[in-house]
From TrEMBL, chain A:
The keyword Oxidoreductase applies. It comes from Roseovarius pacificus. SUPFAM superfamilies: Cytochrome c. C-type cytochrome. Part of the cbb3-type cytochrome c oxidase complex. This is Cbb3-type cytochrome c oxidase subunit. Residues 107-195, 204-286 form the Cytochrome c domain. One of its GO terms (biological process) is oxidative phosphorylation. It comes from the Bacteria.
TrEMBL record, chain B:
One of its GO terms (molecular function) is metal ion binding. Keywords: 4Fe-4S, Electron transport, Iron, Iron-sulfur, Membrane, Metal-binding, Transmembrane, Transmembrane helix, Transport. PANTHER family: FERREDOXIN-TYPE PROTEIN NAPH. It holds the Pfam family FixG_C. This is Cytochrome c oxidase accessory protein FixG. SUPFAM superfamilies: 4Fe-4S ferredoxins. The chain crosses the membrane at residues 30-48, 82-99, 156-173, 193-211, 340-359. It comes from the Bacteria. Residues 253-281 form the 4Fe-4S ferredoxin-type domain.
């Protein structure tokens, strides 16, 4: 590499000066200039090829017909196609045997978690911990049964909705119209006494409440208050309350009744594979039977 | 600096071809040795076999990107242990600081792939076309006769073969080398392998054959960074101008004139691979390959003058020697607080990594407490916490792992999907396991805000175990 002689050049300046430092008005290197022209040409081609110019309704589409929506649609279709085989397998095997196949179970759990966060988390929470009136899916109490088949049926058809004739259905009467206020107070005291966290209060109310309970409530909740999963009647003897286990809440529940609704996820909402995936996911959250 | 005024400023300078002359000497010999060693390591490493037992690759050095594993002899690095790579990069950085502050651009001159491959390409060029003068003649010969075509084609084909071997060796680091070699020749290898080989062949051919010193001068950022790390004690290649000047060759010497030791034979310029004249002083192009030292020493010996007219020296030596004092010994330039500090830091990181490597266990887990919700009340009032545990089995066989908990006797453990506290983790893989810790309703942990617990995992086949500490959240949370 021979050294270029260092030249002291008489180049005109731009006239700008800062603290005695002047700016030369040197021409651009040739290659630089050509790159600059090339970028202009490229920019013009780009606005013709791709969506660019704003018009009254929308923008020019560009001759390549490229759009981000089409990209997304294509990628979704590709993902669907890539999962088609395992989805078919998931939709066709025995529900109870999914957990025996590690690959299928792993896929169902991951896919189910995604489905859950899209379709279920609005009511049941992103961690499936539920809220007042929306069951916690991580615990071991199930209103309509906690086997994988029960969960699958509930997800498919929903509860007490009008969209699916096969939806799980039951109705608790509003006892405010059937019982005297003191009877309601008695039965609420009795129900509270069934819970493991009960702190004894008025024993006479509890005794009278038991009579009312056996007359009015036991037909669904059972003589011992342990509920009935075939009617979605909650177990009243455990530590879990869907709406709350304090006196005021129970008064409200018995007086006005409750009518929790869950929409059906089958049919137009989710595919069979997706329902099975989310059922698998919910089943392995910790309470699956 | 001259004050001549050219007609118009030139905005582009064409490359002046460099034809380095053959040279003998101790630095040239050192460079040959380093070239044989580095190229040998590069080409042969993927072929070293290392038995790791069943289900694991038997290649000693393997970057298994598909399965996210890095194998280096007896060491296996998983993605979560990437800090080892980060540590090695820190060591590489400190090592370069050390070498640069002590020996200047020694990396550029001896070990940089650009230098090593360019050296190899020049060697081939010399074999095919002859030494400097023959190459210059061939370059200046306008007529494209048979001899010129033959020599050029021979040289380029030899370069291309080296380039293909270079690109080819690279891909062997990423998959089983013997299998890939067969696949490459039977056209069954993955397109990525062919593309990688093609790209590396192209870059090697172009960088080593044609771009050469221009990569160092214009493309590489490292020389500019190195300049910031040198100081007045850093050893660089320099010319003892006070001894050499005024330079005269025998034709110019007139009786009675003073003459320096430099006889202006241009030997140092002719051997320079970056085409500079070291007698102009330190220049940004100089990669300190020391070939000019060898060339000059040879001449000095022939004319009966002491060696070292061009030599490794430091800036402080100049003032010293001009004042007539003896230069500091080389070792005192190298051993000074700065280099000792770099060495200490380098060793510290090195020992840290070695320590981390030896305390690693073959059984490993990470625990991620599920905090959405923080706890779950079960129907009997039991408080349950959920943990997502990653269990790692680094062996080539399936292993039975049992999990236990310690920290509070009331807390029991349960694993999702199994009534037992044990699972089998498949060979060489990670398993994600939901783990439940449960405290009875009336127990202490169920009521406390936080309880510290320790999760244990044990290989029931050999008793090896590991633990992770975590927190159990109670009701009053």
């Amino acid at each position: 590499m021979a050294k270029q002689p260092r030249k002291k050049q008489e180049v005109e300046t731009t006239g700008h000066e800062w603290d005695g430092i002047e700016e030369y008005n040197n021409p651009l290197p040739r290659w630089w200039l050509w790159v600059f022209y090339a970028t202009i040409v490229w920019a013009i081609w780009y606005t013709i090829a791709y969506p660019a110019w704003p018009m009254i309704s929308g923008a020019t589409e560009g001759y390549k017909g490229w759009s981000t929506r089409a990209n997304v649609a294509q990628e979704l279709a590709e993902a669907e196609a890539a999962n088609a085989e395992i989805n078919d397998r998931l939709a066709s095997v025995e529900l109870a045997s999914i957990s025996d196949d590690p690959e299928l179970a792993g896929y169902a759990r991951s896919a189910g978690a995604a489905v859950f966060k899209t379709f279920c988390a609005q009511c049941h929470g992103s961690g499936a911990a539920g809220a007042k009136g929306y069951p916690n899916l991580q615990d071991d109490a199930w209103l309509w049964g906690g086997t994988i088949d029960d969960i699958h049926y509930t997800v498919s058809h929903g509860i007490r909705n009008e969209d699916d004739p096969d939806a799980r259905y039951s109705e608790m009467p509003a006892f405010g119209e059937l019982l005297e206020p003191e009877q309601i107070e008695q039965v609420v005291n009795y129900v509270m006494s069934l819970s493991p966290t009960y702190e004894p209060q008025d024993a006479s109310l509890v005794t009278e409440g038991e009579t009312v309970f056996l007359d009015q409530c036991a037909v669904c909740h059972g003589d011992d208050g342990t509920g009935d999963i075939y009617q979605g009647a909650p177990n009243l003897t455990d530590a879990i309350w869907l709406y709350g286990g304090d006196y005021e809440t129970l008064m409200e529940t018995v007086t006005n009744s409750r009518f929790g609704v869950m929409p059906p996820m089958g049919g137009a909402n989710l595919s069979e594979a997706e329902i099975r995936a989310v059922a698998t996911y919910v089943h392995q959250l910790g309470g699956g039977e | 600096m001259s004050d001549t005024q050219p007609d118009a400023p030139s905005l582009y300078a064409a490359r002046e071809p460099v034809f380095p002359k053959k040279v003998y000497g101790r630095f040239r010999n050192l460079k040959w040795l380093i070239m044989i060693f580095t190229l040998g390591v590069y080409y042969l490493t993927p072929w070293i076999r290392w038995d790791r037992g069943p289900n694991l690759p038997d290649q000693a050095v393997l970057v298994d990107l598909a399965n996210r594993r890095f194998f280096f002899f007896w060491i296996e690095i998983w993605p979560h242990e990437f800090y080892f790579i980060a540590g090695l990069l820190v060591m590489a950085g400190l090592g370069l600081f050390l070498f640069t502050s002590a020996l200047g651009r020694v990396w550029c001159g001896y070990a940089c792939p650009q230098t090593v491959w360019t050296d190899l390409f020049i060697l081939v060029e010399r074999w095919v076309e002859g030494d400097r003068n023959a190459r210059l003649r061939l370059h200046r010969q306008k007529k494209l006769d048979f001899r010129k075509v033959r020599l050029r084609m021979t040289k380029w084909i030899a370069w291309l073969l080296i380039a293909v071997a270079t690109g080819g060796a690279w891909v062997f680091y990423f998959t089983d080398a013997p299998t890939l070699l067969i696949d490459l020749f039977t056209l069954n290898a993955h397109p990525v392998a062919y593309t990688t080989i093609a790209v590396l062949t192209g870059t090697t051919f172009f960088f080593g054959g044609f771009a050469r010193e221009q990569i160092c001068i214009y493309a590489c950022p490292w020389p500019r960074i190195q300049a910031a790390m040198m100081d007045e004690d850093t050893l660089v290649v320099g010319y003892r101008e006070w001894r050499g000047e005024p330079r005269k060759n025998s034709d110019e010497v007139k009786a009675g004139e003073t003459q320096g030791d430099c006889i202006d034979c241009m030997a140092c310029v002719n051997v320079c691979p970056v085409g500079i004249d070291i007698r102009d002083g330190q220049q940004l192009e100089c990669i300190t390959c020391a070939l000019c030292i060898d060339a000059c020493d040879d001449i000095m010996e022939k004319i009966g003058k002491p060696r070292g007219l061009i030599d490794y020296m430091a800036l402080t030596d100049e003032q010293n020697e001009r004042a007539g004092n003896a230069p500091k010994p080389i070792i005192r330039h190298i051993l000074r607080p700065r280099t000792i500090l770099y060495t200490a830091l380098w060793s510290l990181v090195g020992f840290g990594l070695l320590f981390a490597l030896f305390i690693r266990s073959d059984i490993d887990m990470t625990v991620a407490p599920v905090r959405n919700p923080t706890f779950v009340t079960l129907s009997d009032g039991t408080i349950r916490n959920v943990y997502e545990v990653r269990l790692r089995n680094k062996h080539g066989e399936d292993r039975p792992f049992r999990m236990t908990v310690s920290g509070d006797p009331a807390i029991r453990i349960q694993l999702e999907g199994t009534p037992y506290g044990a699972v089998t983790v498949p060979a060489d893989s990670t398993m994600l396991q939901r783990v439940y810790l449960m405290a009875p309703p009336s127990s202490e942990p169920a009521h406390s805000e936080r309880t510290e617990v320790r999760l244990w995992v044990e290989d029931t086949s050999n008793g090896e175990r590991a633990y992770q500490d975590t927190i159990f959240n109670g009701r009053d949370n």
